[in-house]
UniProtKB/TrEMBL annotation:
<dbReference type="InterPro" id="IPR026992">
    <property type="entry name" value="DIOX_N"/>
</dbReference>
<dbReference type="GO" id="GO:0046872">
    <property type="term" value="F:metal ion binding"/>
</dbReference>
<dbReference type="Pfam" id="PF14226">
    <property type="entry name" value="DIOX_N"/>
</dbReference>
<dbReference type="InterPro" id="IPR027443">
    <property type="entry name" value="IPNS-like_sf"/>
</dbReference>
<dbReference type="InterPro" id="IPR050295">
    <property type="entry name" value="Plant_2OG-oxidoreductases"/>
</dbReference>
<keyword id="KW-0560">Oxidoreductase</keyword>
<keyword id="KW-0223">Dioxygenase</keyword>
<feature type="domain" description="Fe2OG dioxygenase">
    <location>
        <begin position="200"/>
        <end position="301"/>
    </location>
</feature>
<dbReference type="GO" id="GO:0016706">
    <property type="term" value="F:2-oxoglutarate-dependent dioxygenase activity"/>
</dbReference>
<dbReference type="InterPro" id="IPR005123">
    <property type="entry name" value="Oxoglu/Fe-dep_dioxygenase_dom"/>
</dbReference>
<protein>
    <recommendedName>
        <fullName>feruloyl-CoA 6-hydroxylase</fullName>
        <ecNumber>1.14.11.61</ecNumber>
    </recommendedName>
</protein>
<dbReference type="GO" id="GO:0009805">
    <property type="term" value="P:coumarin biosynthetic process"/>
</dbReference>
<comment type="pathway">
    <text>Phenylpropanoid metabolism.</text>
</comment>
<dbReference type="Pfam" id="PF03171">
    <property type="entry name" value="2OG-FeII_Oxy"/>
</dbReference>
<dbReference type="InterPro" id="IPR044861">
    <property type="entry name" value="IPNS-like_FE2OG_OXY"/>
</dbReference>
<dbReference type="GO" id="GO:0002238">
    <property type="term" value="P:response to molecule of fungal origin"/>
</dbReference>
<keyword id="KW-0408">Iron</keyword>
């Protein structure tokens, strides 16, 4: 049943499991007040730099040393870049996008089986907003999160997307490893000895941003940086992703490119590189006319890994900016609060 009062909207979206997809389907004339962001948390379109863009790197010739150099340079300057001709088949990308739409089109009675209260495993969970029990103002997004490195949980993955998610993760693994190897090369670090640290666990999110009334008052995802080593993001052709230009209050739009993958550095790699590589703050604008989806894969350290500046990075006398912290403690700190830019990094600072 549709909510009858303003107070019922949170209950309808969060407790009853309808999410913002359910609210969007109601074709509301105005944005519920629980989703109206304070002015400082809205994306100010006058601060989007139309003339600037992040690098687009062609990976068709991996034997060319310039490719690895471009990747390291982009990770230092921007924290974000796009890759094309990466070798993940276009049909695999299309299939996982279609599977995402198929999952979110399921009746709420089916989807609710995967919410935190009902999911048979902690490794599969359907959520709305970011932290709906903590967020004072809710974000306009629903997402299914799957810990793909927990192989035993795969029997509980939704059948609407299971096969396509598995294929997308499998076909992307080589590219993710190659990117991390190039980034380690830029630090004079041997990738083979660090692979388990950089990719100890892997998570995938299926993100759904439905049409939003008054999108200029809402936010799809609030400003934050990822806690991953590396994020490997497939976005559809709708657009909405913006990154903050380093050390400024301006934003850069990340346009959809058919077949491209958006790569961004996560906090874990910023810490491991002692700040040489940067995790960039980013957000997603809500959209008033189109449903948007994106599918990020997060390569993360394992929960019981200790992260801190790598010894190879400090061997020339460079002073550490970050202390050594248990990765699970860092992640718990991130999930204790609503999105707040890059403030989580302060947890690891000396």
């Amino acid at each position: 049943m549709a909510p009858s009062t303003t107070d019922d909207y949170r209950h309808f979206a969060v407790t009853k499991g309808h999410g913002v997809k359910g609210l969007s389907d109601l074709q509301l004339g105005a944005l519920p007040e629980q989703y109206i962001q304070p002015v400082e948390e809205r994306l100010d379109m006058t601060k989007v730099l139309k003339e600037e863009s992040i690098p687009v790197i062609d990976m068709s010739n991996l034997d060319d040393p310039k490719v690895a150099e471009q990747i390291a340079a982009a990770a230092e300057k921007w924290g974000f870049f796009q890759i094309v001709n990466h070798g993940v088949p276009i049909e695999v990308l299309e299939n996982v996008q279609e599977a995402t739409r198929r999952f979110f089109a399921l009746p709420v009675e089916e989807k609710i089986k995967f919410t935190q209260e009902h999911s048979p495993t902690n490794s599969v969970r359907l959520t709305t907003s970011f932290l709906p029990k903590i967020d004072k103002v809710l974000e306009w997004k629903d997402y299914l999160s799957i810990l793909v490195s927990d192989k035993k949980s795969s029997e509980f993955w939704p059948s609407a997307c299971k096969q396509e998610v598995m294929e997308y993760v499998e076909k992307s693994e080589f590219v993710m490893k190659w990117l991390l190897k190039a980034l380690m090369q830029g630090l004079n670090v041997d990738m083979d000895s660090k692979e388990s640290l950089l990719m100890g666990s892997t998570r995938i999110n299926l993100n759904y941003y439905p049409v939003c009334p008054n999108p200029e008052l809402a936010i799809g995802v609030g400003r934050h940086s990822d806690v991953s080593s590396l994020t490997f993001l497939l976005q559809d052709n709708v657009g909405g992703l913006h990154i903050r230009k380093m050390e400024t209050d301006t934003w850069i739009y990340v346009p959809p490119i058919t077949g491209a993958i958006v790569i961004n550095i996560g906090d874990a790699l910023q810490i491991l590189s002692n700040g040489k590589y940067k995790s960039a703050e980013h957000c997603v604008a809500a959209n008033g006319s189109h449903n948007r989806i994106s599918v990020p894969i997060f390569a993360n350290p394992s929960p019981d890994d200790i992260i801190g500046p790598l010894p190879e990075v400090l061997k020339n006398g460079e002073k550490p900016i970050y202390k050594h912290v248990l990765y699970s403690d860092y992640v718990k700190h991130f999930y204790r609060k609503s999105h707040d830019g890059k403030d989580t990094l302060d947890f690891a600072k000396m």
